[in-house]
Amino acid sequence: MRMLLCLAMVGLGAMSVGCESSEVASESQVGTETPGSQFVLDTEPDGALAVGEARQAIEDGQDVTLVGLIGGSSEPFVDGLAAFTIVDAKVPYCAADEGCPTPWDYCCESEAVKDNIATIKIVDESGSPVAADARELLHVKELSTVVVKGKAKRDDLGNLTVASSEVFVRQN
Amino acid sequence: MLLPWEYGVRNLARRPSRTALTLVAIATVVMLVFVVVGFIRGLERSLAVSGDANVVLVYSVNSEENIENSSIAARTPSLLAASLDGTVKRFGVTHVSPELYLGTRVRSEGDTEGLGLVRGVERTAPLVRRSVKLVEGRWPGDGEVIVGRLAAAKLGSSGDALAVGKRIEFEGREWNICGRFAAGGAAYESEVWCRLENLQTQTKRQDLSLVAMLLSPGRLSAEVELFCKERTDLELRAIRETDYYGSLQQHYKPVRILAWFVVLLVSGAGVFAGLNMMYGAVAGRTREIATLQAIGYRRRAILLSLIQEGVLLAAAGSILSGVMALTMLNGLAVRFTMGAFVLRIDSVAILIGCGVGMCLGVVGALPPALKALRAEVATSLRAV
Amino acid sequence: MALVELRGVSKSFRKGDETITPLDNIDLNIEAGEFLSLMGPSGTGKSTLLNLVSGIDRPDSGTIMVAGTDVTQLSRSKLADWRAANLGYIFQTHNLIPVLTAYENVELPTLLLKLSSSQRRQRVELAMEAVGLSDRAEHYPRQLSGGQEQRVGIARAIVAHPKVVVADEPTGSLDAETSEQVQVLLQRLNKELNITLLMVTHDRDVAAIASRQLVLDRGKFLELAEAGQTS
Questions:
Q1: Contacts of residue A1 in chain B, CB cutoff 8 Å?
Q2: How far apart are alpha carbons B274 and C128 in whole angstroms?
Q3: Which of B37, B165, B268, C83 lies in the 20 to 30 Å Cα band around C146?
Q4: What is the mean predicted confidence (pLDDT) over B321-341?
Q5: pLDDT tens-digit readout, B80-121
Q6: Does B108 map to a domain?
Q7: Residues of the domain holding C205
Q8: Are B195 and B141 a contacting pair, CB within 8 Å?
Q9: d(CA C218, CA B130)
Q10: Does the CA dihedral A33-A36-A39-A45 come out positive or negative?
Q11: Is A85 near chain B, with CB under 8 Å?
């Protein structure tokens, strides 16, 4: 049931992306380009701030370029919406040889994560979150390093969300 | 050409005591299969019907999958209602149910005490938990509780002890039972519900375990999830209720695998009953089987007749067990860690139980029959 | 051409380290309507020969033609079909199916033939009548005497109208009086119904009822006499 629903969501997401952007090349047209590539940058933007630093320096509504690793909880991706959390690269996570099945949850560094986490939501031209799975859309997975360019949303409690339409995925 | 049907049937009456014993053995095996499959089907059904696709549960990100361990701020429901516009709102009532949920010792009349599941709720609870129906009595007032249809099974007490008008004791006070509710087999049926503020007072807690929200059709639970991700300070997580119970299905997967393994073991043991019976039945008929071959019956026809005997006996055992399972096992409440559920002897259980029974007949009959047919006809004709 | 023709038939058995050859390159003809008895001491291969003719055993070499069919060339299942249509077998120990009535026992071979139910009933009733047991049709074998059981066995052997009937010591387990009745019955079947009979016996008196008697000794036949000469 859950799988069916996920498939339906992915399908829905793919449909909406297809409708909104006629420039998106299909796989058969250009081998390297894939659906969702409208949000993916080919070159890394300059001047990216680390998440921890951004949480200190960035004001609400400011344009920002942020870099971090996808993670911060056992399920950093939002099912059905292109959104996820990223964590500052300075926060260590479990090494592969430690045998942790979900090193991206930073379970040993949960205190450090609180001040070094930000939420990224991929938005369309109207500013609405894209209804698709970010993993499919951006070809990312947990612990992928991403550089996102977008508008920051801050609140008094320190939460930082970036609404972005431009994501660069670093090859780890 | 096959042997006459009567040949197989009457052969069963040839050794009545052995046949009767085998019938009992096969019926017992099939009954055990019914119990285990009924257990699995009941558990699966309980988890499957517990979730509502439009309901999202919001609870603490630190509690993993266990909502009993969750603790979230009391202001969470109002925050959610204010921040998200996807929640159903009718006649000015937002369908958001703040709940305090805990496992605690519950003492019922007759001094029986068991680990019960208590949920402190507000009047919005049945608006969100749409399968819940008050089948007797009324909604709880101060110091009152309503009990689920399977709460007695969960507590290990009699149904009478949890009747309307009786008293139960938990968290240091006595509570009057003012109603009973059903929830179509959902997990809540094994719970005791009381007013949220009463439970908070008794447990000296001001927090909540979870908030259940009923989303408007077409709204995504992902919106709630995104809100929880954005508000990292609240340390919340959101999950669609169906996914939550789906994850419990995964959680109980080892139990289900173990149960299927038991089915396999029990069936394996049952094969020996079938084998024992058929070896005994065939061993004394070596000359008879050779005679049938000498007359002109093909080995396949004789083999089918011997299998027919085994299957006939197994079918009788299966039917016997099936009738007993349907009348005695179906709907029987079973206590389990997540609550209680009823054994479910449905079409799948019947199919598996009877299928196992038939297999016992076939598998039990095959080796002795083949052994008898492999023997030289000329030699077997002179067998004593 | 003879109804049954054995040419160069040999059959050996291994018994421990020793090889026994009860039948060594034998030839035999049995004409249609003939009643042949086969005698010989125990272990000389009488029953082996019977089983070879019946197709329930196979020779090491040689051919066995029965009514134009070389039974040594048939597969196991084809042999079963062939037996159903061409052969009747009378056993020493009757070998009736205990859970079936006398009627049902006699009916068994007819179930293998393409007959209507009325044709089948007619055949069974005739066979029961031929052995004088019409009034015992609904009796189970345990309710019959040894002689009656053997007569049911004979009815079962003839009910499918086989081309040849083989009898393995048909009186071997009967008392003298009953044995006499069975002998008379076999003679009648041969003479009145013209049934070809091959009977194995170790009893010289029983063998004497046959039209031709052979003695099997050290793998070879010795022709004793034509019918009537030994009595």
A1: 242, 246
A2: 38
A3: C83
A4: 84
A5: 988 888 889 899 889 999 999 999 999 988 778 888 999 999
A6: yes
A7: 32-44+74-226
A8: yes
A9: 95
A10: negative
A11: yes
Residues B30 and B109 in one domain: no
User: From CA B357, how far away is CA B321, in angstroms rounded?
Assistant: 10
Q: Is residue B246 part of a domain?
A: no
Q: How many CA atoms lie within 13 A of B34 on its CB side?
A: 28
User: How many domains would you assign to chain C?
Assistant: 1
Quick one: pLDDT band at residue C84, thresholds 50, 70, 90? very high
Establish if C54 belongs to a structural domain: no
B44 with B68, same domain?
no
Is some CB atom of chain A closer than 8 A to the CB atom of B82? no
Name subunits touching B (3+ CB pairs < 8 A).
Answer: A, C
Residue C32, pLDDT above cutoff 70 = yes
Question: Which residues of chain C are at the B interface, by a Cβ-Cβ cutoff of 8 Å?
Answer: 47-48, 51, 54, 56-57, 76-77, 80-85, 87, 89, 91, 93, 95, 97-100, 104, 108-109, 111-112, 156, 160
* pLDDT tens track for C155-210: 999 999 999 999 999 988 888 888 998 899 999 889 988 899 999 998 888 999 99
Closest CA to A127 of A161, A169, A104, A172: A161
Give the model's pLDDT for residue C175: 87
Please name the helix (run of DSSP H) or strand (run of DSSP E) that holds residue B59, with its range, or none. strand B55-60
For range B297-317, the mean pLDDT? 91
d(CA B128, CA B214): 5
Rounded to two decimals, the pTM is 0.70
- Chain C residues with CB under 8 Å of B292 CB are 97, 108
The pLDDT of residue C137 is above 90:
yes
- Whether residue B180 lies inside any domain: the answer is yes
In the block, which residue shows the tokens 């027919």?
A: B308
Give the C-alpha separation, A129 to A124, whole Å. 6
Determine whether the interchain pair B295/C99 forms a contact, defined as Cβ–Cβ distance below 8 Å. no
**Position C122 pLDDT exceeds 50:** yes
Q: Radius of gyration over alpha carbons of chain A, in Å?
A: 16
Q: For chain B, what is the domain count?
A: 2
Same domain flag for B96 and B196: yes
> Measured between CB atoms, does A157 come within 8 Å of chain B?
yes
Does one domain contain both B318 and B300? Answer: yes
On whether any CB of chain B is under 8 Å from the CB of A128, the answer is no
The verdict on B384 touching C (C-beta cutoff 8 Å) is no
Do C214 and C30 form a contact (C-beta atoms < 8 A)? Answer: no
Is there a contact between B245 and B56 (Cβ–Cβ < 8 Å)? no
Number of A/B CB contacts below 8 angstroms equals 51
User: Which carries the bigger pLDDT value, residue B299 or residue A94?
Assistant: B299
Taking alpha carbons only, the member of C27, C31, C24, C28 closest to residue C10 is C24
* Alpha-carbon gap: B255 to the closest alpha carbon of chain A (Å): 20
pLDDT at residue B384 in the model: 65
- What does the angle CA C136 – CA C142 – CA C143 come to, to the nearest 5 degrees? 40
Question: Does B283 have pLDDT greater than 70?
Answer: yes
Place of tokens 């006809």: B377
B290 vs A109, more confident: B290
On whether residue B243 sits in a domain, the answer given is no
Which one of B58, B59, B230 would you mutate to disrupt binding with A, by most A Cβ within 10 Å of its Cβ? Answer: B230
C-beta atoms of C87 and B296 within 8 A: yes
On average, the pLDDT of chain A sits at 78
Amino acid at B149: R
The dihedral formed by the CA atoms of B284, B288, B293 and B297, expressed in degrees to the nearest 10? -110
- Taken in order of first residue, the domains within chain A and their CATH numbers are 39-170 (2.40.50.200)
* CATH code: domain of residue C83: 3.40.50.300
The Cα B57–Cα B73 span in angstroms is 14
Identify whether residues B200 and B291 lie together within a single domain.
Answer: no
Q: Are B226 and A157 inside 8 Å of each other by CB? A: no
B299 touching C, CB under 8 A?
yes
